């Protein structure tokens, strides 16, 4: 029976493919865990800068990084180029499009997939390349400089960033974050720094501008990392789903293989029995 060898060959092929997917899943998990640790490595920097800014009375700071000069927005949509985050990409750009309330708002898109969605809607935008781990820092700093220039020039008063975030390896969601104006984020926790106790070589506005400049670069770098984590998580989920489908297929092939073997055995036994009956006459 020609079917039986073919079924066995298919079983061997799918078993090899299943083993390959298992290796790829392990690599995806490892990459996810490594990047997750890297993102958490800036906690100390955040603590120092944010603690200082929280100790300043933001009411005394007259700077566009702290107080919005207008309600125009720079809306940043971070999308993935992997092809595995189609649903999340659509949610990101849909939320970004909804944020565009004024003709003066600026749309910024990270990633080629998001650009395609904007082109389909006929929307103008400022585009940046997709995220790669090798270029993540350069992308974060370039994006920071572009956004801060828009704020300094009073083209926009607010910056809104929308991106996919992996809460875990198996769970992702869309995050909306407004890093600027920083004054909306600042919380004075009861203890303000007495600046008269310090010798200031620069004005308070200049100090705050530089700290927010540093903080913004760090924040965007982390956000791009979170979006990259979502890509890796989506890759793992895709591999996991493919592995499950292969496993189900393997079970079906095994049942088919054993059924065919039993049928072949039964047929051989019937033919042997019939031959014995004929020869015994």
Strand content range: 5-15%
CATH class: Alpha Beta
For the termini, the CA-CA separation is 30 Å
User: Which stretches are poorly predicted, pLDDT < 50 over at least 5 residues?
Assistant: none
Derived from helix and strand composition plus strand pairing, the structural class reads alpha/beta
Write out the CATH superfamily name: ATP synthase, F1 complex, gamma subunit
Question: Into which percent range does the helicity of residues fall?
Answer: 55-70%
Query: Roughly how many Å is the radius of gyration?
Result: 30 Å
Number of domains: 1
Can you count the beta strands? 5
Order of helix and strand elements from N to C terminus: HHEHEHEHEEH
Q: Which shape, going by the Cα principal axes?
A: elongated
What's the CATH topology name?
A: Pyruvate Kinase, Chain: A, domain 1
Rounded average pLDDT? 81
What is the CATH architecture assignment?
A: 3-Layer(aba) Sandwich
Strand order of the largest sheet: 3-2-1-4-5
Total helical elements: 6
Q: Largest sheet, if any?
A: 5 strands, mixed
